Amino acid sequence: MSADRLGPTAGEDRAKWTAAVFAAGDYAGAAMFGDPVTWQWRAARAMLLGEGAPMSALASDTEPEARLHFGAARWIHGDDAGALEVLDECELPHARGLARLIRRERIQVLAQLPCMRGSQWDLMAAAESDPRFEIRNVGYAVEGVRNQPYADVRRFLDADFVPDFYVSAMVEWHHLPPNLQQLQCPILGHIADHDLHVQTLQPWLGLFDELVVTDRSEWLDVQNLSPGLGSARPVTSFPKVFGLPTDLPAIPEGERFLDFFVSGTMLDDYHPDKAALMHELLSIPDIRLRVVRGHAGVEAYHALLGASQASFTYVRRPGALPTRGLESLAMGCALATQRLRIESS
Questions:
Q1: Is residue 120 scored above 70 in pLDDT?
Q2: Which one, 90, 125, 178, 225, has the greatest CB density within 10 A?
Q3: By the 8 A CB rule, do 96 and 87 touch?
Q4: Is residue 143 within 8 Å of residue 164, measured between CB atoms?
Q5: pLDDT tens, 255-305?
């Protein structure tokens, strides 16, 4: 299967394909390319998007696995009471476990999350606003618990803090405690730039009970990254691992004075794609173009997006979630990226 053809083949049974990828944890693949007649497609869309039609249709499914994921979808989208109503009627062990977690007065989470305030990586701002969660974030930011290389994970626990689960976002950015497996809770890790960091990242992946990626292309890659992954240590695709700053400026009204805006690495060996695209943009007569080679400050970046009609972002794995794309669309700036072909050859 080529990297940009991610769906079932033309002759493949689409319903069976959907059931198989969903069972393997590829929720993004099931939601994007699955068969709408299956409960797995409805469950994936309900969990990822909270869509009304799939959520309503899923409510009538009697399959125990469908009920479990319906309950999970309701909890993900803020309906605790509705989730418990569904989960209490499901006899699956995972349903009971999730119901116990939802009923906790405070859900304690040991975390290693990026602390990049005002960016798409500002996961702590949203987490801190939910009183149900008590998050002890380990890292090097002033407001977190101080980390150090090869730390003993027990340093971050005490009698008043016994985590219900551990989670690390962008595992490749953190110094991980080598004895993570001594935690008596699920150990979850999200990775994104696994291809760039594979030499340093690969030896640590065995510490996790489950890995999370954003889309099917990454899911296919990460399956084979480390011995023990797959059935023993599953990989799940779930796009919602990034956010947007809560203090984004309002989308400007009126005419935009720029046709196109692009920033970042422009003419470097790391991104030869951008060099080619820059030549194409510069060949357009009378284009109103703004190029920043490097990174503008946050305020300037948002202002330039708000003043531009369009921008582009290059995704090394077509189908993955581009954080630059989220920011562009949030500022009303049209986004161009590679074409994604659904059927495999």
A1: no
A2: 90
A3: yes
A4: no
A5: 999 999 988 877 777 667 777 888 888 899 999 999 888 877 888 889 999
Q: Which residues contact 74 (CB under 8 A, 6 or more apart)?
A: 55, 82, 83, 86
Q: Coil, strand or helix: which one is 189? A: strand
| DSSP assignment letter at 142 | T
pTM, two decimals, is 0.85
Tokens of 308: 């531009």
Q: Residue 269 has which token pair?
A: 């060996």
Q: Quickly count: other Cβ atoms within 10 Å of residue 93's Cβ.
A: 9
Residue pair 317/3 in contact (Cβ under 8 Å)? The answer is yes
For residue 242, what are its two tokens?
């990034």
Angle at 173 between CA 168 and CA 174, to 5 degrees: 60
Nearest Cα to 240, choosing from 21, 49, 15?
49
- For 176-213, what is each residue's pLDDT tens digit? 999 999 999 999 999 888 877 788 888 888 899 999 99
CA distance 244 to 89: 36
The rounded distance, in Å, linking the Cα atoms of 198 and 99 is 37
